[in-house]
Amino acid sequence: MRISLRKNLYLRAALLTLILIAGMIIAVGFGSIKIETAAVIDEFANYLRGLKTDSPNAMIIFDIRIPRILFAAISGAILSLTGMLMQTVSQNYLADPYILGVSSGAGMGAVFCIITGAAQIFAPYGVYVGAFFGATLATVIVVRIAGTSNNPIKLVLIGMGISALFSAFTMLEIYGSKNEAQVRSAMFWLMGSFTGIQWAMVPITFAVLMMLMIFIWLFRHELDLILLGREEAQHLGLSTERMQQAVVLISSLAIAITVSIAGIIGFIGLVIPHIARFIGESRHAVMVWFTSLIGAVVMVWADVMARSMFSPEEVPIGILTACLGAPVFMQIINRQYKDS
Fold first, then answer.
1. In angstroms, what CA-CA distances link 75 with 8, 86, 259?
2. In this predicted structure, what is the pLDDT of residue 204?
3. What is the percent of the chain with per-residue pLDDT over 70, rounded to a whole number?
4. What is the CATH number of domain 80-335?
5. Can you tell me the distance from the alpha carbon of 239 to that of 101, in angstroms, rounded to the nearest whole number?
6. Which residue, 18, 111, 183, 291, could crosslink 276 as a Cys pair with Cβ 3.0–4.6 Å?
7. How confident is the model at residue 334 (pLDDT cuts 50, 70, 90)?
8. CA–CA distance, 188 with 267 (Å, rounded to integer)
9. Distance separating alpha carbons of residues 298 and 305, to the nearest angstrom
10. What is the distance between the alpha carbons of residues 263 and 260, in angstroms, rounded to a whole number?
């Protein structure tokens, strides 16, 4: 029975992997300039044969769309995994990656650079630098205030306070700007976007994803114990304080890097872990694979919709993930609490 169940999980994971790979290939053809599937296959075939072409299609595919699609898949997996970690450590299935206020800190830093023009100092990465510093500041404050407390409610409430504070500062920055173009740019960034993703950003986020997956795999048993309850976990010899601090630090770092590049993308980290538990299991050894794969698939297709719905204009991806994620989340909650 157990072998059959494990084989079933492997088949589901393999199917999700095939769906992800196929989706990424198909996604290459979508955008402000539609490229037929046959043309995409021809360009890939030429690349594999070592034939470099300077055609417009080749430039769009290899210089713009492939790094963007890879980043979309990686960021979807990162947001989903950090959401799963936050739900575990806070023992709250309504938690998401932004519960610690890291995204609000990143938003404040990025908007500050956009509104004040400080982004020009570190051009072309000024906004990313500002967002990362803002996210780091929020993380330091949360860790400093939370200290060694292992109370998940205290952690969540501190995160909510930090989030509200930095969000207020962000709105003050936007309100104080008299430049309409700067305000528009700031708002677009706050709603999330993959515009301008370059190859240099892919290895950085891939390294973050690997770090997250290795961490979850190494501490999968400890994370499972937390699901039993903190008192039970402590009775079994787990230091919940150290585990909480480790999860907070690694999650904050992952979110800081991802949000500093792509902006704030909601509902992915909240909804995907629920879907992964439904398709797979609640054990973290299984969740790490299903959560990352489903998050990657959803983000790739959300990006396709973002750049195709009103082509050649692009919709901020955070709007789409909210539109898609909110109804799914309400349905999940309704199914889980239908007898309440």
1. 27, 16, 9
2. 94
3. 95
4. 1.10.3470.10
5. 25
6. 291
7. confident
8. 17
9. 11
10. 6
Give the separation between CA 122 and CA 120, rounded to whole angstroms. Answer: 5
* Residue closest to 280 by CA, chosen among 11, 2, 3, 75: 11
- The torsion angles phi and psi of 223, rounded to 5 degrees, stand at -65, -35
- CA atoms of 55 and 114, how far apart (whole Å): 35
Max CA-CA distance within the chain? 66
For the stretch 87-112, what's the b/e string if a residue is b when 16 or more beta carbons lie within 10 angstroms of its beta carbon? bbbbeebebbbbbbbbbbbbbbbbbb
Of 107-111, 221-225, 237-241, 281-285, the range with the lowest mean pLDDT is: 237-241
176 pLDDT more than 90:
no
For tokens 């990006």, the residue is 303
Please provide the average confidence, as pLDDT, over all residues in the chain. Answer: 88
Q: Calculate the alpha carbon distances from 196 to 51, 65, 322 in Å.
A: 26, 10, 22
Does residue 218 register a pLDDT over 90? yes
pLDDT at residue 337 in the model: 67
Cβ(332)–Cβ(273) below 8 Å: no
In the numeric block, the tokens 């956009």 are attached to 114
